[in-house]
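Q: I have 400 residues here and want to know how they pack in 3D. Can you give me a structure?
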Amino acid sequence: MVQVLYRELKIRSYDGEKDRARVEELERGCEIVGPADRVFLFTDTLGDPICRIRNSPSFYMLVAESDNELVGVIQGSIKLVTMARLHGNLGLARVGYILGLRVAPHHRRQGVGSRLVRSLEQWFVSNHVEFAYMATDKENKASIKLFVDSLGYVKFRTPAILVNPVSPYRALHLPSHVEIKKLGTKEAKLLYQKFMSSAEFFPSDIDNILENRLSLGTWVAYYKGEAWEDIRYESVSTGLEYWRGPRDWAMVSVWNSAEVFKLRVQGRAPLSCLIYTKSCRLMDRFFPCFKVPAIPDFVDPFGFYFMYGMHCEGKSSALLVRTLCQFVRNMARKSKDCKLVVTEIGARDVVRLHIPHWKLLSCPEDLWCIKALNNEEQSSLQEITRSPPTRALFVDPRDV
């Protein structure tokens, strides 16, 4: 391989007016990789390169230039989340999320990616971030080699990405003995704080997520005949909430990722897969009684709904989780560009067993890698990465 000798590699802040078109060109250049007989999924940012971080409390984007050529980009965001500390104690930690690392194909393996990551880490440190983390495909050997082998990150969690196609031809039947109710933002916030505040990476600004225009709402499911009482404060002076809910219930919130960016499929799928896809769509359209799940047509760019904050209580809540998932899938049918319902669940989260998904479309497990950015947190990091996860993992829809 020919080594590229840089006259000067300049890392600087992203300038929308100056860099927008060049970043889009770089993204397109990074797509032309991989064998022709495989299918690849790419993100269409709809002309807004920072769309994936724009809704975060604090965000930053860096570009790398060499001889006036834009050769790399990286993005990061900062938030306050729940994390396990020493001796199993829970506490708040300031974390930085790394995403969107791209390096032009003919400039790879020249240290551009490492320089971008280290520059972003410097921004994290200047903003008092304690831990930096990233997520990648478990099979992405190049990314793992960079972060784990070269930059000192350690493997942390392996949540599963579960995907369900949205049928344009028929709505799913919901059980008649299940009640579904949409919650107000205030009540949803109180429920999350009461039942999920101990989940790993639970964001302290959950109210900002729920109030965001991309959050379509929060719904609960419970069996008819049981009462659902709104959470209310027991007294203003103590601030303690009072709630007596049903014995079995489930909840979920929905984020409209289709308004932020679109996904595009590129590459050539095997002929057997194409025949199966076409057959399923025809069966679903003309013989819905057979209930064959259909794969949507992915020729054009498409969006998806992301289910987050999924939680259930009670021994008979499995059906309620499945019903909520079906409800969201029916809701997605009404959106023109939404062809998938997606969620990401921790490996040890029991709710994972009850979420309907299609294995043919579901992605490999994600791999989260994490790094302590100061010496004081090294001991804490060693403890939480060596022990298996014991609690649910909250996946922030702003990080998707």
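Q: Anything worth noting?
A: DSSP finds eight helices and 17 strands in the chain. The radius of gyration is 22 Å.
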